[in-house]
Design goal:
By secondary structure, the chain is α/β, with parallel strands linked by helices. It folds into two domains: 210 residues, Isopropylmalate Dehydrogenase; 114 residues, Rossmann fold (3-Layer(aba) Sandwich). 42% of the residues lie in helices and 19% in strands. The strands form two sheets. A ten-stranded mixed sheet has the order 2-1-3-12-11-4-5-10-8-9, sandwiched between helices. The protein has a two-stranded antiparallel sheet with strand order 6-7. The structure holds 1,4-dihydronicotinamide adenine dinucleotide. 1,4-dihydronicotinamide adenine dinucleotide (NAI) binds next to loops.
Length: 337
């Protein structure tokens, strides 16, 4: 009988709804396989500030440092002013350099793009997300893009090693080195050096604007795509459209010493608190977490239940054409388990 302690960050907006649904499903499936989970629950962002005076309470940092694994709902980041992104801060604090986002259709869910199966590997700690912005003089602002050899090499290694281990055939670097010759140029040089160590995997490079057009025209040409932070952020949302939208796509933020599992989507304030959110993206993030913890049987049974509920197509949420709410969808998954 195995036991795991996980840091749980429900987040805000739709975060608590999708987190509750996910925890209920994980606990049900885990019990069937003789595994138990205990959750160390922590607020982050504006809710945490209201209670503790800190946007990321020290207790949350301590918890992740100890458990080394967190399941996280989305956290709202104010636009144009206010506190720094909680998500970016956590990724940097724990050096979660690889953001892994699989884009795969679910059975039975019709989209304009059937049978897509590609992986986005996003560098998670550098680029324009280092937050080094300043107003030089009124009316002139700058934002520093930071690219390092170390950061670019390790994300390229992650992409190639993942491809090699999972029988993937191709890795594409996505870049804008025609304009950002030094930063994206360095990223490409590092990826090219890593590619030389993996002759078994085809390597290609696409400029990011062309990659957007290539994706919507023919996503099937891609297998594993590796890129810096901003391009990864944008292409993740674009690619979620292939498989039914943001309600579906999971993610993992991975480092040497910790991992935080969270969906690609944000806090969706437009539907928060209305039992409308699709918990599939966070649930599939929990499946990635279970695989990371070597709880393969529990992961397989949850994925099997998700596939069955989508294949049946009777209890789906509104974002994917159904009429059910978050809790009815979660009930259907529990029943399918
Ligand atoms: P969003 O992803 O929250 O929402 C975009 C659209 O997708 C909305 O129409 C929303 O209703 C829909 N959507 C998202 N998730 C859904 C789900 N599970 N089920 C059904 N529909 C869903 O993006 P937006 O509006 O740009 O950002 C809102 C806030 O979230 C911002 O403060 C942003 O900074 C934050 N954010 C947080 C992230 C995180 O915590 N990792 C990631 C992305 C954004």
């Amino acid at each position: 009988m195995s036991q795991h302690t996980i840091t749980l960050i429900p987040g805000d907006g739709i975060g608590p709804e999708v987190t509750d649904a996910t925890v209920r499903i994980v606990e049900t499936a885990a019990k069937q396989h003789g595994t138990t989970f205990s959750w160390e629950r922590h607020d982050a962002g504006a809710d945490a500030f209201a209670k503790t005076g800190e946007y990321i309470p020290k207790a949350l940092y301590d918890s992740v440092s100890t458990t080394k694994v967190a399941l996280k709902g989305p956290v709202t980041t104010p636009i144009g002013s206010g506190f720094k992104s909680i998500n970016v801060t956590l990724r940097k604090q724990f050096d979660l350099y690889a953001n892994f986002r699989p884009i795969k259709n679910l059975p039975g869910l019709k989209t304009k793009y059937p049978d897509v199966d590609l992986i986005i590997v996003r560098e998670n700690t550098e680029g324009l997300y280092v937050g080094l912005e300043q107003e030089i003089v009124p009316g002139v602002c700058t934002s520093l893009k930071v690219t390092t050899e170390k950061g670019s090499t390790r994300i390229a290694k992650f992409a190639f090693e993942y491809a090699a281990k999972h029988g993937r055939k191709k890795v594409h670097s996505i870049h804008k080195a025609n304009i950002m010759k030094l930063t994206d140029g360095l990223f490409l040089k590092c990826a090219q050096a890593v590619a030389k160590d993996h002759p078994e995997i085809q390597y290609a490079e696409h400029i990011v604007d062309n990659a957007c057009m290539q994706l919507v025209t023919n996503p099937y040409q891609y297998d594993v795509m590796v890129m810096e932070n901003l391009y990864g952020d944008i292409l993740s949302d674009l690619c979620s459209g292939f498989v039914g939208g943001l309600g579906l796509v999971p993610g993992a933020n991975l480092g040497e010493h910790a991992a935080i599992f969270e969906a690609v989507h944000g806090s969706a304030p437009d539907i928060a608190g209305q039992d409308k959110a699709n918990p599939t993206a966070l649930l599939q993030s929990a499946v990635l977490m279970l695989r990371h913890l070597d709880e393969t049987a529990t992961a397989d049974s949850i994925q099997g239940a998700i596939d069955a509920v989508y294949a049946e197509g009777k209890t789906l949420t509104r974002d994917v054409g159904g009429t059910s709410g978050t809790s009815a969808f979660a009930d259907a998954i529990v029943a399918a388990l």
